[in-house]
Design goal:
The complex is a heterodimer of chains A (about 120) and B (about 500). Chain A is elongated. Chain A contains three helices and four strands; from the N terminus they run E-E-H-E-E-H-H. Chain A has a single domain (about 1-90), classed as 2-Layer Sandwich (Alpha-Beta Plaits). By secondary structure, chain A is an alpha+beta fold. Chain B has two domains: about 20-105, no CATH class; about 110-415, Aldolase class I (TIM Barrel, Alpha-Beta Barrel). Chain B has 19 helices and 15 strands. In chain B, the strands form four sheets. An eight-stranded mixed β-sheet of chain B has the order 10-9-8-7-6-13-14-15, with helices on both faces. A three-stranded antiparallel β-sheet of chain B has the order 2-3-4, with no helix packed on it. Chain B has a two-stranded antiparallel sheet with strand order 1-5. In chain B, a hairpin with a 4-residue loop joins strand 2 (about 30-35) and strand 3. Chains A and B meet through helix 2 and helix 3 of A and strand 1, strand 2, helix 2 and helix 4 of B.
């Protein structure tokens, strides 16, 4: 992440797309929308993020940069979980709601803690 | 499901099988994480199970840096709580499915709560109330017998065998004759339709007379009243010409307790700007009146907070400060030996600490409106929730689903309006919520989003709903680090001190 510009009301950043993909960037900067206007653009392999304060108070750049760095890492981690678990999440939801019926009559009442074959009895 | 008969051999494996320290290539299962305080973060899986861990643990887990040999306790906690799996499809996936199904089981039975706005008339002129009218005109502002009948017909069509018929106002007791008619009619219909009905009257208790009590008792009707705090707050919030709202409420509470029993009367707190300065006094009043629960409800944004981001944020911050101060006072009372629970926290704690869903309509996903609650207004109009009817009083009919006597059950519950609302009623699919660790404990509220932000989908960074719930849930986890507080919280859920 490179700082392109910083002044009282703005912070411009350039972020390498190999490090943080578009999903991560948008999900991360979504949460900055209450205090800042966010513009995200792309120039070759770099995302350019323009952060403009909504209020008249000066931007605390050190604080903001630290928060952005932490948030980008967190959202990248969340992105890894989301992608790696996409199929299992879909499977889980689909199976949970798929025509579930309870067994009214259990097939056997015999408990089998030690591994004998109850069908032999 | 594989039966015991099909499974021929279930012998325990040798100890080495369970101690395979070489295995570090685990698979992630769906979970989310969030910082709780400067030391701890929380991991929450798809069914709401959680682990409080040191900050940085989520990163290690996700980057597969956790090993069975070096992090044995954590590793097995993660396996047993469905955060990671040693197989691509966990062998106990069926268990996780059942847990997920259980968490969403509030959807199984569909709409339970049917609110009948039996009259819009009221003898109070509370400044925060947008809906009531001070008038003697019964024809214009009381629900007609025709609309009562039609409302009961809709209620009887609900797939839910247990329904609640709640009478609201205005002041419901001003139309007590209509309540009597509705209760008797609903009971008759319930017999034919094999429904079990719970009756509730929401009232400020001012019009309560001795001759009403035998009917209320005979039909086991619950009374839901309002107590905003000590006299100087209650009377300021709830204007009455005689300035004696507090006195008549306390007298009414006493009468109800004597005649109906402690369990059939409850009181709700309406928080106003004035209340925010007196958290301790409000809790003291509830204790003084012998209540064992208090519901610290936020200020309703309907009417005053629409579309103003800054004001909304400020109001929510003030409410959260009030909530925490009152909450500390409640905990103090419990530590001193007086059992009193806070109801909003209890709803959230039930979601956190038990596998079951909670029937609280404002904190569900899919949202409680339509799925759990429907409102029949005095004039026969049908709304998706109580807040939707308040919007209608401000001439916004976005959430009007139909009209009694004209709209069919399908029009109301599965019509175009319901379909439109359903696009924004699951927090699993909302931006900002989809990867939030608190998602299983929170909900979605398209009406609130619409009222405060102009659209049903909402925008989480400035949402009062998100700001409030994120902080309260975080606060509860923060407090729960103290095991004695966790024990207290568990007693609020179970009702037992041990």
């Amino acid at each position: 992440m490179k700082i392109i510009l910083k002044n009282d009301s703005q912070l411009h950043l350039s972020i390498n797309e190999d490090l943080y993909n578009e999903n991560v960037l948008f999900k991360c900067f979504y949460w900055y929308g209450s205090d800042y206007n966010i513009d995200i653009d792309k120039n070759k392999k770099q995302y350019v993020v323009i952060i403009t304060s909504k209020s008249s108070t000066k931007i605390d750049h050190d604080h903001l940069l630290l928060k952005i760095k932490q948030d980008l890492i967190d959202f990248k981690l969340r992105d890894i979980v989301t992608k790696e678990t996409k199929n299992i999440r879909e499977l889980l939801t689909a199976k949970a709601f798929a025509h579930f019926q309870t067994d009214e009559n259990p097939l056997t009442e015999i408990s089998d803690p030690v591994g004998f074959d109850p069908t032999k009895f | 499901m594989v039966s015991v008969i099909e499974k021929k051999n279930r012998k325990f494996k040798e100890i080495d099988y369970y101690q395979n320290n070489e295995l570090t290539n685990y698979f992630l299962l769906p979970f989310r994480f969030q910082k709780i305080n400067s030391n701890k973060e929380i991991l929450v899986n798809e069914v709401g199970d959680f682990l409080l861990v040191p900050i940085g643990t989520a990163e290690k887990i996700i980057l597969k840096k956790i090993t069975k040999s070096e992090n044995e306790t954590l590793y097995f906690d993660l396996i047993s709580s469905f955060f990671i799996s040693e197989e691509a499809i966990p062998p106990l996936l069926n268990v996780l499915e059942a847990r997920y199904r259980t968490k969403k089981s509030f959807l199984d039975q569909f709409t339970a709560l049917h609110i009948f706005v039996i009259s819009l008339r009221c003898e109070h002129t509370c400044h925060y109330c947008q809906v009531s009218r001070v008038t003697e005109n019964k024809d214009q502002f009381d629900m007609s017998l025709y609309n009562i009948d039609e409302g009961i017909k809709i209620m009887m069509k609900s797939p839910n065998p247990h329904v609640t018929m709640e009478f609201q106002g205005g002041e419901a007791l001003l139309a007590f004759n209509n309540i009597k008619y509705a209760v008797l009619k609903a009971k008759e219909e319930a017999l034919l339709n094999e429904k079990h009905i719970t009756f509730v009257i929401c009232t400020n208790l001012a019009p309560l007379t001795d001759d009403m009590l035998p009917f209320i008792k005979e039909h086991n009707i619950m009374i839901s009243s309002s107590l905003d705090g000590p006299a100087f707050i209650h009377n300021q919030n709830r204007h009455r010409p005689q300035r004696n709202s507090y006195e008549v409420t306390i007298e009414g509470l006493k009468k109800c307790r004597e005649n109906l029993g402690e369990d059939n009367i409850s009181a709700l707190l309406t928080t106003t700007n004035l209340s925010l300065d007196y958290p301790g006094e409000i809790v003291d009043e509830y204790v003084q009146q012998g209540f064992r629960n208090i519901f610290l409800r936020p200020i309703s944004p309907y009417g005053f907070a629409t579309y103003n981001e800054k004001k909304n944020k400020y109001q929510t911050e003030k409410f959260l400060a009030f909530y925490k101060a009152a909450f500390e006072k409640i905990i103090d009372y419990n530590i001193q030996g007086y059992y009193i629970r806070e109801d909003y926290a209890t709803v959230i704690l039930k979601k956190i600490l038990t596998p079951f869903p909670v029937g609280y309509v404002d904190l569900q996903s899919p949202a409680g409106m339509i799925n759990n609650v429907i409102v029949f207004n005095y004039d026969g109009k049908i709304y998706a929730s109580d807040e939707a009817r308040m919007l209608a009083e401000m001439n916004d009919f976005t959430f009007q689903l139909g009209t009694l006597g004209k709209s069919t059950y399908n029009d109301i519950f599965y019509g175009e309006k319901a379909m439109k609302i359903s696009e924004s009623w699951a927090n699993e699919s909302l931006a900002g919520c989809s990867e939030c660790a608190f998602q299983p404990y929170c909900g979605a509220d398209p009406v609130l989003n619409y009222a405060t932000q102009g659209n049903m989908y909402g925008y989480r960074p400035t949402s009062v709903f998100c700001q409030k719930n994120m902080e309260i849930i975080r606060y509860l986890f923060d407090l729960m680090e103290d095991k004695s507080i966790e024990k207290l919280f568990r007693s609020w859920i179970t009702g037992h001190s041990e």
